[in-house]
Amino acid sequence: MRAYYFDNLPGDQRLPHDSGREVSLDTLAALGVLYWCIPVDAPEGWETKINAIAEERQYHSRDVVTANKESLGAVYEEKMAMFFKEHIHEDEEIRYLLEGSGFFDVREHTTDSWIRCHLEAGDMIILPAGMYHRFSLDEREHARTLRLFKDEPRWTAYYRGPDTDKNPYRLQYLKTFSGMESGTAAVPVATVSA
Fold this sequence. Notes:
Shape: globular
Number of helices: 6
Strand content: 35-45%
Low-confidence stretches: 180-194
Structural class: alpha+beta
Helix content: 10-25%
């Protein structure tokens, strides 16, 4: 994975939009973003490592989705626009790329800047509940992704606006990752390369 500040220039969302300003894993961790590199061709198998993370974090369900023109057909452009609209979830968003590549843009709450995370096969990312983000395929327009869930698979987006800004999961995210609670900032356990 490579992370950098989004350049905010107009243009196709599938282009890199690279500002040239890199973002470290420590910066992402301070925002609540967790990352693992688990090669899909690892000798011991990626499934073993994913299963260990799932058990540790209590993910009980999973599915595999493919995002490309062939799999989505007539609704491809509509789905890509929906994924790219800024939103939060009330659950963690857990994604492990099995094939292809794409961008997760995460909102840096302290500056309201976008940080673009370019993921490729073997990259796993976890976004905390309540974090504003969006997704886009890159120019290759293909990603096959393992999604993990604490409960049943679901994808409910709450798009940015005054009501979502007051969503309890959004407020908890800000409390946890802004250090607003007793003056101390919480930082995730790890950013791990496997």
